[in-house]
């Protein structure tokens, strides 16, 4: 079940043209924010993280800004480079989305 959640976050399906999915948009924003927080918490620059993950620094920037989708295997390496795990990443995503939902419902 956790792996399914991770795959859905890392390999997000796109909505049909002209269709806005608020839940998907919130998940994508949370995903990008968590990527950034993970790197910053580890004290890594984009260049240092890119070198450890094996991707260009521009891919780190584009992933953190939501303009690029990180593949689940890349996410695994991203987490490891930051001293974390996929499970921890998903738990943080769950908390962030729950908080976002509670703020928008009130």
Can you put this structure into words, describing what you see?
- With 106 residues, this protein is mostly helical.
- It has helices at residues 2-10, 22-42, 46-53, 57-64, 72-81, 86-105.
- Helix 3 packs across helix 4.
- The longest helix is centred in the N-terminal third of the chain and has 21 residues, at 22-42.
- The model is unreliable at 11-20 (pLDDT under 50).
Describe the secondary-structure layout:
Elements: H1 2-10, H2 22-42, H3 46-53, H4 57-64, H5 72-81, H6 86-105
Helix pairs in contact: 2-6, 3-4
Helical run tally: 6
Which word captures the global form? globular
Mean pLDDT: 83
Largest sheet: none
Helicity, in percent? Answer: over 70%
Low-confidence region ranges? 11-20
Report the count of strand segments.
Answer: 0
Order of helices and strands: HHHHHH
Structural class: mainly alpha
- Beta-strand fraction estimate: under 5%
Radius of gyration: 14 Å
Whole-Å distance between the termini? 30 Å
Please provide a brief summary of the model.
With 106 residues, the protein is mostly helical. The protein has helices at 2-10, 22-42, 46-53, 57-64, 72-81, 86-105.
């Amino acid at each position: 079940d956790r792996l399914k959640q991770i795959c859905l976050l890392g390999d997000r399906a796109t909505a049909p043209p002209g269709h806005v999915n608020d839940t998907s948009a919130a998940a994508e924003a949370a995903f990008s924010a968590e990527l950034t927080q993970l790197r910053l918490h580890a004290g890594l620059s984009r260049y240092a993280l890119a070198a450890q993950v094996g991707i260009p620094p521009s891919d780190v920037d584009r992933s953190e800004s939501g303009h690029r989708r990180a593949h689940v295997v890349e996410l695994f390496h991203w987490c490891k480079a930051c001293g974390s795990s996929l499970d921890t990443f998903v738990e943080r995503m769950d908390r962030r989305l729950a908080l976002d939902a509670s703020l928008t419902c009130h």
